């Protein structure tokens, strides 16, 4: 498929993109593992690109030290913490040629799998993603909610979003180019990868606990992440609001007919305060829920309409090995 590449004298390029937010402890453990995995791919021109997502714990200093020791390392520092999805976007935007592998900084995505990913890429796949067989070191609540989330989004969204799959994957150059065209501000990456399509293949793996440090995603953040996923890739809640409205309107109509008929047939001794309250409160609740759903979408529309840049860069240090512009 890409045999044309092999005819040319240039090696194919592979960039490992790692978003890091307060990962000073994990990064020194991760880099040797990435380096070892890249050793196994001598016929590739490999780079590692770390994106410091506005860390406050010395991550940048650790990265500078790693970059001085290895000319293949490029560093990108954002102006503040933008969140993992945008940090990854910033990193992928800087991959000029070749494929990219996305890894978590905490060692939960094993770099040892990179050669397998590359093998699949060479077979002609564009999106090679890791699927978790099990999640070690994560409580049953997180596992259960994650499971439920993937099922719900799978039903609601027309975009294929594989279950138990994170951002850990290899993207071919054309998948990368496609992804770069999606400039929405609310970035639900799993969905965006799915939207791109092309030849996709899953590689099952065991997900290990974090090497060091703490997870940045607490339940509130995960809940918002789930909302982001659903609102970015499905308008089903809006339709649900319509049906909910229809259903209550029909019920209210039937009840209205019954109340009027009752008053005509048997007179009306002004009773029924409890039922009146119940109906008013119920209708009020249903209306507020439907309004809230609309608000979720409206708020996102507002964010998109502002057309702000997705992220701002503080410092960009390309890999020393890349700059071949010597006179
Ligand atoms: N991360 C980031 N920006 C953030 C939060 C997290 O770049 O605002 C990175 C973090 O450094 C790690 C990855 O995203 O490399 C996954 O984060 P974490 O391990 O905390 O999430 P979990 O694996 O618990 O879902
Ligand atoms: Mg993690």
Automatic annotation (TrEMBL):
It is found in: Cell membrane. GO terms for cellular component: plasma membrane. Belongs to the glycosyltransferase 2 family. GtrB subfamily. It comes from the Bacteria. InterPro entries: Glyco_trans_2-like, Glycosyltransferase_2, Nucleotide-diphossugar_trans. It comes from Vulcaniibacterium tengchongense. The chain crosses the membrane at residues 240-261, 273-298. Residues 15-176 form the Glycosyltransferase 2-like domain. Keywords: Cell membrane, Glycosyltransferase, Membrane, Transferase, Transmembrane, Transmembrane helix. GO terms for molecular function: glycosyltransferase activity. SUPFAM superfamilies: Nucleotide-diphospho-sugar transferases. It is a multi-pass membrane protein. This is Glycosyltransferase involved in cell wall biosynthesis. CDD domains: DPM1_like_bac. Its main location: membrane. Pfam families: Glycos_transf_2 (PF00535).
